[in-house]
Every structure is written in structure tokens, then in C-alpha cells.
Amino acid sequence: MEQSFFEKVYEVVRQVPHGRVTTYGAIAGHLGARGSARMVGWAMNQSHSQSVYVPAHRVVNRNGMLTGKHFFGGPNVMKQLLESENIEVEDDRVVRFRELFWDPGEGSGAPKTE
Q1: What is the Cα–Cα distance from 84 to 60, expressed in whole angstroms?
Q2: Which domain holds residue 45?
Q3: pTM of this prediction?
Q4: Each residue's pLDDT expressed in tens, for the chain with a length of 114 residues
Q5: Number of domains in the chain
Q6: Is 16 contained in some domain?
């Protein structure tokens, strides 16, 4: 049985490492659905009903903004979840977003060293 798009999204989001973030667009692109970032967002909105935990708080928009924060049961829950992973959030934006960004195509999730 083939997985639905939402199930594929959840599978990718479950791979986002603790202390890292990714974007709706990066997930869509990884799944071969460039231009479907909004659909990934819809999947995130439904993720709270999954029997297996989906760390949806690790998915932000392309600028590092917490655009999905209203779907976490309170205005600060998404921020608190990120901060519990030592991700600093200021004005609803991930601080050091580029450094903390995880590309689903990378695989390991280890931060890049330069």
C-alpha cells in the first residue's frame, strides 16, 4: 500500500534531529513536490492527531518564522518546544536559522562544519 503525501511528510519530519529545524519547502522538495510547501503545512496542521509523535515544532517557514505556532494549543507552545531543544527564538523567528537548518536531503542531521 502506497503512503499518502501526509504520511511521507510525517516520515521526513520524524527524521529532523533534536535541536535542528527544517522548512515546509525543503520537505516538499525532498518529496519531489516542489511548490507544495503549503500542502506540507496542511500536513503539519493535522500531525497532532497521529498515533506516532511528529515533531512538527521543528518545521518553520523559509525565513525561520514560526508560522504554524497557532496549531500548538497556545501561542507560545511551539516556541517553548524549540527552546527546550536549545533553539533560541526571538520575535517568532529562529535565531541562527541558517546554522540550525536541516536539509532532508543531507541525511545525517549533523551540523555542518566549515
Answers
A1: 16
A2: 5-100
A3: 0.90
A4: 678 999 999 999 999 999 999 999 999 999 999 999 999 999 999 999 999 999 999 999 999 999 989 899 888 999 999 999 999 999 999 999 999 999 998 865 544 433
A5: 1
A6: yes
